[in-house]
Structures are given as structure tokens and as C-alpha cells.
Amino acid sequence: MTESELAPTESAGRFQFKWAPEVLFRPRQAFAKIVAQASGVWLTPLLILTLMALLRVWAAGYVNQNFAATGEMPLPPDFQYYTPEQQAQYMQAIQSTQGPVFVYVFPALSALLGIWLGWLLVGGLLHLVMTMLGGRGGTMGAMNLVAWAALPFALRDLVRAAALVINRQPINNPGLAGFGPAEASGFAAYLVAWLPIIDLYLIWHILLMVVGVRAASSLTMSKAIGAALATVLLVLALLTLVRLLTGQLGSLTVIRPFF
Questions:
Q1: Residue 83, Cβ neighbours under 10 Å: how many?
Q2: 147 and 45 Cβ atoms separated by less than 8 Å
């Protein structure tokens, strides 16, 4: 890639919703335009992610409140392995968290923090990795491409919201969670904690990051793949560890960056 190809063009404007389908289905042409911008064009994808995350939170809250109204509480997949005391504690905790604040407000705040703070974390880490591998891309380019490459997760939230409303059942085993053993300990528990995060949308996200890295820097294909994988795996490793630790402390809400 020559220096003229890397030269930024005139800003395309703050909102570019028409780029979203191009990023998902024609990523090479889309990222060529995105990384050529002289200013940040990250607001549009983050707004889309925010709206879809709030839609998913609303759908999940709607389902949970319907369960509460009928007296049928959603149970975790391994509920049958709980002791009678643990089962009673779980049911009591569920009963005390059926107000709008717990059902809608806290999940919405967690989702929003995950999107916006996660974008900063992933974008900053990607820029660092690209620089270490010899890429010439700037910080703004990395932040732009990470935001747009996260659009598959907006589509995932839309699909999950539709599934929640149509089936009126909570999604207990997202991703590959259904393939994990009910009981695991030690390092096996850490590996099992990865399964809910892994799905087709994550793979789609990684592929878009590779295309974006190639467009934003002078890295070869192998280094672009390495930069995208290293960034995602590092963030997932941290996220999985936090999920595992908080789960052992009582199934606390985890702020998830994109994934």
C-alpha cells in the first residue's frame, strides 16, 4: 500500500448509516472509505450497537417480567445440581430483583458501558498491537475500524431480541455454552467460560477486523490476522477470567466489551 493510498480524504460527515450494510457484506470497499477519513467516523456504528443492545435488554426484561407474573422463574442450566439451600437462596434473590431497576436499568447501563468502554479498550489495544507489528496506521484509524467491525454484534443483539420476544424464553446457553459440561473446576472451568462468547458473530467480527487492519496499515495479511486475533484473544481472556471470578462470587453482572 502506497502513501497516497493512506492519505486521508475529506471528512464524510458525522453520521454514515448507509455504510453499515457495506461493512457487513462488502467490507473491503467499506473499510477503504472508513480508514481514509480525516476524522472520527465511529459514532454511527456505536449508536447502532447502543440501540440494538437496548432493544435486547428490553426484550430480556419483557421475558423475565412475564415469567415473574406467571410465577415461572427462569433457572440456570445447572440448577438441579444446587443444594436445597442454594436453590432457596437463588429463588429469593430472583424474587428481590424483579423491579424495573434490576430488570431494565442495571442491564442497560452494563450494556452501554460494555459498548463504549469496550470500544476504547479494543481500539487502544489494536493500535498498540499494530504498532508493535510495524503498522503505520494512526490511533483514529484503529478506533474507527474497531467500531465498524463490531457491527455483527448489533445484528446478534437484534436476532436475540427477536428470539426472546417470539419464543418468550430466556437464552440460557448462548454461543457454544451448551457443549460445556455442567460441572467443571480449575482450568477446565476457565475453558468452559469461553464457550458462551464463541459464536458466528465473533468470527465475523474478527474477519472484519482483519480487513480493516489491512486497509488501515501497511501490514501483510499474516500480520493483520495476527493483530486481529491477538487483540480479540487478549480481551476475551480478560473477559472470561472476570466472568469466571464474578460467577463464583454470586453471578454478578459483568460489563462485556462487545463480546
A1: 8
A2: yes
Q: Give the Cα separation of 195 and 240 in Å (integer).
A: 9
pLDDT at residue number 255: 66
Any domain includes 39? yes
**Cβ-count burial of 219 within 10 angstroms (0-12 exposed, 13-18 middle, 19+ buried)?**
buried
Q: Which domain holds residue 50?
A: 19-248
In a domain, 65, yes or no: yes
The count of structural domains within the chain is 1
Amino acid symbol at 8: P
Residue 11 inside a domain? The answer is no
CA gap 231, 250 in Å, rounded: 29
DSSP helix/strand/coil, 84 = helix
Nearest to 16, CA basis, from 171, 186, 37: 37
Give the C-alpha separation, 24 to 79, whole Å.
38
User: 141, 151, 139: which is closest to 27 by C-alpha?
Assistant: 151
DSSP 106-139: HHHHHHHHHHHHHHHHHHHHHHHHHHHTT----H
Cα distance from N-terminal residue to C-terminal residue, the chain? 31
pTM: 0.81
- Which tens digits make up the pLDDT trace of 138-153? 889 999 999 999 999 9
- For 69, 141, 177, 188, 252, the CA distances from 163, given in Å and listed in that order, are 20, 35, 17, 30, 24
pLDDT band at 11 (very low <50, low <70, confident <90, very high): low
Q: Are 83 and 55 in contact, with CB atoms under 8 Å apart?
A: no
Question: Please, are residues 95 and 69 in contact by the beta-carbon 8 Å criterion?
Answer: no
* 201, 56 Cβ separation under 8 angstroms: no
